[in-house]
Design a protein that fits this description.
This protein is an alpha/beta fold and 153 residues long. It has one domain: Nucleotidyltransferase, domain 5 (2-Layer Sandwich). It contains 6 helices and 5 strands, in the order βββαβααβααα. A 5-stranded mixed beta sheet has the order 3-2-1-4-5. α1 packs parallel to α3 and α5 packs across α6.
């Protein structure tokens, strides 16, 4: 009966919450170093996602969606090089796994949960809300997404 919030990417971060919205676990799915095809990377990440959802008995999941920030050179570059499409495939795979496993899921665009907040502001709010520090920016985003959806960011 746990929930999971996910910041997708080649270093996908997740936060797992109990039914009282207490944080019980965080982690990052990392792909092995080396030259792998995009398909192999996606399969490895999907396999890790499926394993943690089963192990943690996830019943509800919110996944950060893909969005182009037109004012961001980094975002526009990611869109033009195909990296944003790869991220879209990853999110779609996570959603498909949720569907197959009977997990309720939502895709939440970054502007829905954090608006225009900078990473620094999100980090401060997450750390203040939970009373602890987090070093990984992806984990901070996964926690922030969860707090935004089920708690108080």
């Amino acid at each position: 009966m746990n929930k999971m919030s996910v910041d997708p990417g080649l270093n996908t971060a997740y936060a797992i919450w109990d039914e009282d919205i207490e944080l019980i676990d965080t982690g990052v799915f990392r792909i092995r170093s080396g030259k792998y095809t995009s398909e192999k990377k996606l399969c490895d990440l999907w396999r890790s996602f499926n394993a943690i959802t089963r192990k943690s008995k996830i019943t509800e999941c919110c996944i950060e969606g893909v969005q182009v920030w037109m004012g961001s050179t980094r975002s526009v570059t990611a869109a033009s090089t195909g990296k944003l499409m790869l991220l879209s495939y990853l999110v779609g795979g996570y959603c498909h796994i949720c569907h197959l496993e009977g997990i309720s899921f939502r895709i939440i665009n970054p502007t829905e949960w954090k608006g225009q907040m900078s990473k620094e502001v999100v980090k401060r709010r997450v750390e203040r809300a939970l009373g602890q520090n987090f070093d990984n920016e992806h984990i901070v985003d996964a926690i922030g997404l969860g707090l935004s959806m089920w708690g108080d960011l």
